[in-house]
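Bumping with the actual sequence this time:
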Amino acid sequence: MDAATDSGNANCSENADVRSCAAVKIPERLLKRDLERQEAVERRKEEKESQAVTEEKGDFFSRTFNSEKAEIQDLMSGCSELDRDKASEILEEVTLKIQQLQKFLNDSVVFLPQYELRQAQASLQTLQSTLAEKRDQVLPKKKFAFRSRVTATHKAQDIPVSTPSSQCSKSESDRQSIESGGPNVDGNISAQQCGLANADSQVLTMGAEEIRQRDVLLTHLSNCKVRLLGTPSTLHIKHIRNSEILCGPVSSSIFVDNVSGCTFAFPCQQLRTHHTTDTQVYLHVTSRAIIEDCSGVSFAPFNWSYPGIDADFEVSGLDRGRNNWTLVDDFNWLAADTPSPNWTLIPESERRSDWD
């Protein structure tokens, strides 16, 4: 009897333990589900807050950008050639404000939608073009220098092509045709552009005063070495073969198209490269690099320097501490789990360091 009782008590104890374990397991599962639910709610809350912050930043950017743009436009509209000293002061103030606005845009790239970013870049380019027109209108020193250079170019046309002087005259003449809106390059050159065109086996340099936040075009160059000192607003590189192009900080975008066998070095906000093969790019980019219809393109960090580059970085508004040179989007390669075969990183041991 006692044994049966003990056995029954033991069974009851075991059954009680089982029921106790079962009672514990059920709350654990419920707690786990509740925890997952709370985490999901928290994630949605954070996403909503993040979206609200992004929208708030976007609204602030739009208000500030449009306000500064209107102020710059008002300053330029009040600039007259009747008072050259005052006009010069106003244009310097406008130049500084455009530089500050460019830096504001560069700092806002991380949260701006692509459409708004493109709109802001277009507005800045319009402001820079208007500034160049206004400067030529009220301070027409360049106009007279331009005429004298054209005369000198015409006089030099009888010099044999093999002489160094004719090479300088040829590159100067090419530059004139672009600055004056000549039709010799792709038929779309505006009066606000400057640049170099139609040269072979030459060393070509443009200084900071020539570039001065303007839209720069390099086209139809072969076997050339090009140095662009200063801060272009935008840089276009088209139809270039077996050439080396080094450029100072570009405030907005660089567009490369139809290039082969070249080496480039430049800082910019954004790089877009099309129809390019077997080309090395030493890059500083604060946004991203984009390639399309390219092959054999390789990248390394920008490492060229020249006297005055620190000041040019300040003028450009680019962030020297942010370089996304390894972030390359290939629009022809959509496989996320496999690297694109169309671009590579240059091994550190193979990177150039001497540009002289």
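The tokens above came from a reply further down the thread. The CA atoms of residues 218 and 225 lie 12 Å apart.
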